[in-house]
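Task: sequence design from structure.
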């Protein structure tokens, strides 16, 4: 099995086999467009579940609970403030966290006493705090400032490194799609948008760009080598070959990155009940998968499309196609220009 996978990766690198990523770009654009529309529409229709840090409210923490279940907390809050909306979470197996709408001081004291009675613990084991929405607004503002600064800086550096703004534009557009899809999927599954989730979403920016830069570096190498008069590949074919040559590496990198994140998600959320770990790991897991997909199916084909209309590239491609026709209609495979499709 290992030998077959190694041989398959070698065939992709040499061009013996190939997936036509660039040629199927209209299909990939359509799929990406549908995903983005859905990830925007679903949260708008069903609403976004913001955490207490963003919406503000009162929070109660009950420690050393023998039988940590959620229903007693909901009943206790309802007994004091019937109209209050409560969010109850089990923390660490023997702790309960209760988040409600903003309560008056007297109401908070009554709720704390009701929670202590419901879980049969001393009132001293129940701590209460108030979280204002301004903190979440500050986090959001700083996150947006950081996002804009990061995107602008990354765009400039990539344009200078690759010596073309079109590579930078293709990478940034794919990155924006990653962010929209990640946030949309995260919100669609019903998880709270918390500061930890915001950190996770911003963290995937570097991973997504790293994968894109690796692929683009190979694209630059191939298109530079195939720009000479003896080249028998069109520009799109050179780009497609580069994507296939780095495909195995992209998949391996994604798997290696996704497995520990998935383990953190399972252990942190399912076993330990740590919401912060859950929020960060879920955002990272979604971002890793979406980022890998967008690099291969969106960024590379988009870059090829941006460059194919340039006069020099058009002349080169026309020359390659005419030489094939002159060779008696030989296939690209026979001419050494195209690999065998998989």
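Answer:
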């Amino acid at each position: 099995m290992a030998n077959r996978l190694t041989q398959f990766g070698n065939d992709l690198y040499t061009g013996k086999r190939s997936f036509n990523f660039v040629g199927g770009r209209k299909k990939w654009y359509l799929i990406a467009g549908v995903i983005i529309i859905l990830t925007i529409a679903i949260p708008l229709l069903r609403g976004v579940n913001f955490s207490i840090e963003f919406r503000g409210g009162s929070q109660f923490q009950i420690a050393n609970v023998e039988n940590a279940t959620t229903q007693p907390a909901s009943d206790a809050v309802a007994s004091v403030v019937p109209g209050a909306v409560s969010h109850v979470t089990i923390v660490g197996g023997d702790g309960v966290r209760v988040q409600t709408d903003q309560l008056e001081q007297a109401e908070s004291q009554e709720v704390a006493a009701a929670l202590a009675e419901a879980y049969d613990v001393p009132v001293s084991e129940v701590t209460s705090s108030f979280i204002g929405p301004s903190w979440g607004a500050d986090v959001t503002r700083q996150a947006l400032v950081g996002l804009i600064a990061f995107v602008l800086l990354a765009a400039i550096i990539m344009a200078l490194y690759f010596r073309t703004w079109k590579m930078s534009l293709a990478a940034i557009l794919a990155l924006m799609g990653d962010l929209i899809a990640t946030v949309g999927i995260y919100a669609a599954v019903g998880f709270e948008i918390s500061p930890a989730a915001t950190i996770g979403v911003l963290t995937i920016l570097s991973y997504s760009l790293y994968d894109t830069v690796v692929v683009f570096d190979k694209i630059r190498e191939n298109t530079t080598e195939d720009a000479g008069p003896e080249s028998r590949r069109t520009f799109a074919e050179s780009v497609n070959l580069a994507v296939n040559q780095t495909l195995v590496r992209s998949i391996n990198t994604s798997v290696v990155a996704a497995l520990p994140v998935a383990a953190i998600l399972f252990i942190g959320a399912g076993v330990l009940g740590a919401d912060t770990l859950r929020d960060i790991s879920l955002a990272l897991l979604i971002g890793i998968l979406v980022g890998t997909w967008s690099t291969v199916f969106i960024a590379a084909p988009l870059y090829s499309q941006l460059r194919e209309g340039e006069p020099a590239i058009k002349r080169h491609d026309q020359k390659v196609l005419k030489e094939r026709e002159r060779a008696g209609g030989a296939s690209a495979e026979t001419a050494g220009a195209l690999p065998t499709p998989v």
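The beta strands are 17-18, 57-62, 87-91, 95-100, 126-131, 340-341.
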